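cron nightly-structures :: item 1 of 1
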Amino acid sequence: MNIVCLDLEGVLVPEIWIAFAEASGIPELKRTTRDEPDYDKLMRWRIGVLKEHSLGLPDIQRVIGGIDPLPGAKEFLDALRESTQAVILSDTFEQFAAPLMKKLGWPTILCNTLEAAPDGTITGYRMRAPHSKLTTVRALQSIGYDTIAAGDSYNDLEMIRAGKAGFLFRTTERIRADHPDLPAFEEYGDLLAAIRAAL
């Protein structure tokens, strides 16, 4: 039995923080897990920048409301789910994900939760589990699934390497160069073919 584990941002939808950086005019918020391997460090820094600019959860959610999946993402996901089960494993937050899941046809997503004050100020976040993507892959394997994973960032590498097959998708040149043994794709058709071949 197989299950495919996919990253969300950069793979199926645009990077939320980059979109918000562009909408808010705060270019430093373009920093993502493609740039910073330490997620806790990245999130604490982001929360500080938001506080400095008096921005909160409602401001980000307004931007997310205008984000569409990457061209071809829903069709890719639909075609993939005709062949096997799929789950999205993301370090994004429940408060960010719902509008995007609707546009993707409500796939299963496992992600984290933001902590926010009544006025919408983001005060912190709760990770679902330590090393949440790897932890989830290991849990799926423990109940009889062979996992196949695809992602684009540093925080995807553990789950990509933990399964019977793993792929980089639209990643950075640096990550590709640092992990030359991992197949890397730029087009959904190529990724779909590779996943089907691994099933």
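cron nightly-structures :: done
The chain is about 45% helix and 20% strand.
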